[in-house]
Amino acid sequence: MAKDKKLVEQITSMDVDFAQWYTDVVKKAELMGYSSIKGFMIFKPAGYALWENIKAELDKRFKETGVENVYMPMVIPESLLQKEKDHVEGFAPEVAWVTHGGLNELQERLCIRPTSETLFCDFYKDEVQSYRDLPKVYNQWCSVVRWEKETRPFLRSREFLWQEGHTAHATFEEAEERTQQMLNLYADFCEDFLAIPVVRGKKTDKEKFAGAEATYTIEALMHDGKALQSGTSHNFGDGFAKAYEIQYTDKDNKLKHVFQTSWGMTTRLIGALIMVHGDNSGLVLPPKVAPTQVCIVPIMQKKEGVLEKANEVKEMLSNFRVKVDDSDKSPGWKFSEQEMRGIPLRIEMGPRDIEANQAIIVRRDTSEKITVSIDELQTKVGELLDTMQKEMLERARKHRDAHTYVAKNYDEFKEIVATKPGFVKAMWCGDQACEDKIKEETTATARCMPFTQEHISDTCVCCGKKATKMVYWGKAY
Amino acid sequence: MAKDKKLVEQITSMDVDFAQWYTDVVKKAELMGYSSIKGFMIFKPAGYALWENIKAELDKRFKETGVENVYMPMVIPESLLQKEKDHVEGFAPEVAWVTHGGLNELQERLCIRPTSETLFCDFYKDEVQSYRDLPKVYNQWCSVVRWEKETRPFLRSREFLWQEGHTAHATFEEAEERTQQMLNLYADFCEDFLAIPVVRGKKTDKEKFAGAEATYTIEALMHDGKALQSGTSHNFGDGFAKAYEIQYTDKDNKLKHVFQTSWGMTTRLIGALIMVHGDNSGLVLPPKVAPTQVCIVPIMQKKEGVLEKANEVKEMLSNFRVKVDDSDKSPGWKFSEQEMRGIPLRIEMGPRDIEANQAIIVRRDTSEKITVSIDELQTKVGELLDTMQKEMLERARKHRDAHTYVAKNYDEFKEIVATKPGFVKAMWCGDQACEDKIKEETTATARCMPFTQEHISDTCVCCGKKATKMVYWGKAY
Fold this sequence. Notes:
The structure is a homodimer of 477-residue chains.
Chain A: H1 18-28, E1 32-34, E2 41-43, H2 45-64, E3 68-69, E4 75-77, H3 78-81, H4 85-91, E5 96-101, E6 104-112, H5 117-127, E7 136-145, E8 159-169, H6 172-193, E9 199-202, E10 214-221, E11 227-237, H7 239-244, E12 247-249, E13 255-257, E14 259-266, H8 268-277, E15 294-298, H9 306-316, E16 322-324, H10 331-340, E17 345-349, H11 351-355, E18 358-363, E19 369-373, H12 377-402, E20 404-406, H13 410-419, E21 423-428, H14 432-442, E22 445-450, E23 469-474
Parallel strand pairs in A: 3-7, 15-16, 15-17, 20-21
Antiparallel strand pairs in A: 1-2, 4-6, 5-6, 7-8, 8-14, 9-10, 9-22, 10-11, 11-14, 12-13, 17-18, 18-19, 21-23, 22-23
């Protein structure tokens, strides 16, 4: 509960200290709390409501493409984790181990799932026998644990919420198609629903998922110019199928290995929402994901008829998510609170407005004030929410484009990375040595090789040898 | 994937071996699979879809009463678990312990949550400072782990899915009101949505939740006459608040402890659905919870126009959850599969029906066949689903009432428990010694002291002393 009138003054300006601004907003918008267990967070109602909306929309989009939801055990036996070599190397160092059940020590220790490829493989091994059993397009919504050393709310914590899709197919082509389909679904979701523009592309081998043949990613640019990997989709080829012996009898009566994919999005999307759209007054939520879209603030609410009218207007706007703030706080305090929580529209209405049959709508993103006849409120609110959703995406896109640079040689590259926060587009030879060198010398990493390639020059920005790919580079969360 | 034509023949008759029938249905209706981790289950799509529907409806009802969702860490430090004496005694013997994070041993071991009272208390301790911060009416949807020795799909497993509500209030009365409100919400949900009649009542001290002052329960009777505790709601008084030091400053400026409740429902409700409504052809799902409500089976589907018409009818029925089974299996096989999966209505339509502009609807619960003009299908399907929902509840209620007996003395009691599966209503003195004796000698336990009391006799059925309560007794899952 907020207890101080100077709500906005309690958050650091984003231009002064972006990291502190972020932490302040997370706290003051009451999205998350720190638990007394190191590295584990508490999703408070305002934070969890965002995840519920993200989840409902993503789940609907998944199901439209034939995805079915399942639920797998939260623990994995050590021997099962170890069957795929790259995978275990990637995850074993950062899992939590269960060694005792009840009063007894376990014969084999179990890790809490850091991701569930191994469990799905173990399941598919028995479940898939014939080509008739394919494809399997399963997904689960759950929490996972990774024993991170440094943690930040939503961005990196020892436990986070996510969805993980795991599919099995008869052919490599079908698996590849599903991998790209889900990546494009993620990208469309980010742009349409969260108003976050993303770059779609492929990860370099160095950056790909442990055990994958190819990892595709969407990369978003935060307000401070840092990149955030916002969703990934992996094509495993038949690597896991061979390690876990997942075979089916094909139409030609031959035994074949399946081809698999996995793809996931997490609660770090909430971090992206904050860092792409937020401002010095707090959170700014795109209307589609906002748990509350309109906050009605009655002015002089003790005067006869004011609260009644406010509630009448709420009823009138029943096709939107509306609340009336009828608490005993001052209007100014209520304004700050609505702004901090990022509620897209505020409707102010006092005795004089009501007498004139009008109300004032204030947009959270632009602070624009619009006086509207109460008869036209419903239409106007709908229009403003639509406009705001579109303009927030455009604004974020402009910001991203204005912070995307081109480097033709290594001096330019280093100069940009050192002085201009954002993406750097530059050519690369394909050699990991250059990637390692760039990371070591600049801390920038290869975010992705975008699907939409551009020809910037003929040579690798680092070594000067023949370039094979244009890469987006950046410092990342 | 089903691979055999004799689907129904593969399940044991419920009259021959109810336990085996249950296991067969769980398997053949593809609700759940066994994982390779002992005691941990896999929710397959058909099983998880039931939970999704249960969850969506319960969540909507929760929110109508002001509940807000949050998410707490999945682990609890040992020292935190130990603060409330009764609670730790109740749960410590059956938790899973995490002792290592990454490559290091933890300084303090953590248990995977068996329930989250301790975490909510730890959270409320900081979150609740003033009477303005009350009430807190929070809930979370998550999975919990209890290291059970014997496990059965949905009824008892080492991990299960549930919701746990945890509230904090200024007064005992308000906490008591919330405890009963949620129990009644559970009861109404079971009856309206799952068509499962329940007895509402209070648990005896012996059977109440570890750390609670009072536990309320809803008890349902399965087809085999065994009882299933289907939802519980606990009033903690200020016991946890004192152990965890949750205090607030009241309007009178005095520091006071809060009063708390918790309440939960789990995936064992799916077990109840199976065991209350199922028959020898498999699952029978009440229309409201059924993921698919209508299965259209085209007859002679290769004939021109048949599949087209089936899909047209599906479109016509778009306000219901409908699928067309256009697989290459035989109609007979499709019928068995629809029956096994418990889909409420089947619509059969072949070339002759289509020519006559009609279709045949078959009810899953009664096998009744109704020939209906295609023009009237939409109305008729709606009516039949409503009727089926109501009649399934009535049928279950009749079965329960027919298996609820009255015992006036201990000989009668023992005779009934030994020979007639069901509930036994009998008077009790209130002494735990009698409860212990009854359990030891008959294996029946006190299911609840129903809110609606009846006067059966003046004396305790066991010891003959003055009776204080009428109790429902029964053998339980």
